[in-house]
TrEMBL record:
<protein>
    <recommendedName>
        <fullName>DUF218 domain-containing protein</fullName>
    </recommendedName>
</protein>
<feature type="domain" description="DUF218">
    <location>
        <begin position="87"/>
        <end position="204"/>
    </location>
</feature>
<dbReference type="GO" id="GO:0005886">
    <property type="term" value="C:plasma membrane"/>
</dbReference>
<dbReference type="InterPro" id="IPR003848">
    <property type="entry name" value="DUF218"/>
</dbReference>
<dbReference type="InterPro" id="IPR051599">
    <property type="entry name" value="Cell_Envelope_Assoc"/>
</dbReference>
<dbReference type="Pfam" id="PF02698">
    <property type="entry name" value="DUF218"/>
</dbReference>
Length: 257
């Protein structure tokens, strides 16, 4: 009489091994190919050159950020020691439900403080108004008027889509030759460098910010944005929208005299 049939198992308890089922095949789809990294150099000389190349890349990546720090260090001020300047430029920083974000509110608070102290006469608010349902300059204007800055002393730039655009338009469209710039501390150096490249003599006030997720994001972003800033300063591209000259700043200054 034949003995009991052997059962294939994968452990001492005799658990049956499940037969391998064929992998389903999807017509026209071969699957993703595994990512293959380049092979590491096998010789000492090859490894040395790879390390040198990596070091060169790191230095090149940090050059723009170093340029910003070195070239703007002597032009940073606070609301307490900012020189008297006719115009302040406040850069947009996003809206929350149609109202200035906390970061933007801090910038506007600094501008209102300078106005009340008699250190500035006109505020140029520059931001994004590329959609009908998103209007940074008008939200900034409303905030400033609610904090004591007369509407006739506020000028709006509705095409400040990025820092370079805002600086170029301040000079070419609104005729600003000198200004105090107001932004967060992690952004103000880039604003100073770009406005100088655009022909605006400026000092910068970097308002303090709470070290939250946005703060860390902003600081990290500036490392990469420094590269674009260097290219903008060298090649001086036209802003996304230039348009005709506007005389709002001149008229606002006339009411202050």
């Amino acid at each position: 009489m034949p003995g009991p049939r052997a059962v294939a198992s994968d452990d001492t308890w005799g658990t049956p091994i499940m037969p391998r089922l064929p992998r389903p095949r999807i017509p026209g789809f071969r699957g993703l190919r595994p990512l293959r990294l380049p092979p590491l150099p096998r010789t000492r000389e090859g490894r040395r050159r790879a390390v040198q190349a990596l070091m060169v890349l790191c230095v090149l990546a940090l050059l723009p950020a170093t340029w910003l720090r070195v070239s703007t260090g002597d032009r940073l001020r606070t609301t307490a020691d900012a020189p008297r300047t006719e115009v302040a430029i406040v850069f947009g920083a996003g809206l929350w439900d149609g109202e200035p974000s906390p970061y933007l509110a801090h910038r506007l608070d600094a501008a209102a403080k300078l106005y009340r102290a008699g250190r500035i006469e006109v505020v140029l608010v520059t931001g994004d108004n590329s959609r009908e349902d998103y209007d940074e300059p008008d939200a900034m204007r409303a905030y400033l008027t609610a904090h004591g800055v007369p509407g006739r002393r506020i000028v709006s730039d509705y095409a400040g889509f990025d820092t370079w655009d805002s600086c170029v338009r301040a000079r070419k469209i609104f005729g600003v030759h000198e200004a105090v710039l107001i932004s967060q501390d992690f952004h103000i150096r880039r604003a100073l460098a770009l406005c100088r490249a655009a022909g605006v003599r400026s000092y910068g006030i970097g308002v303090a910010a709470r070290q939250d997720v946005t703060w860390y994001y902003g600081n990290t972003r500036e490392i990469f944005a420094a590269g674009k800033a260097a290219l903008d300063a060298v090649f001086e591209p036209d802003p996304r929208f230039l348009g005709p000259e506007e005389h709002g700043v001149g008229r606002a200054l006339a009411t202050a005299r």
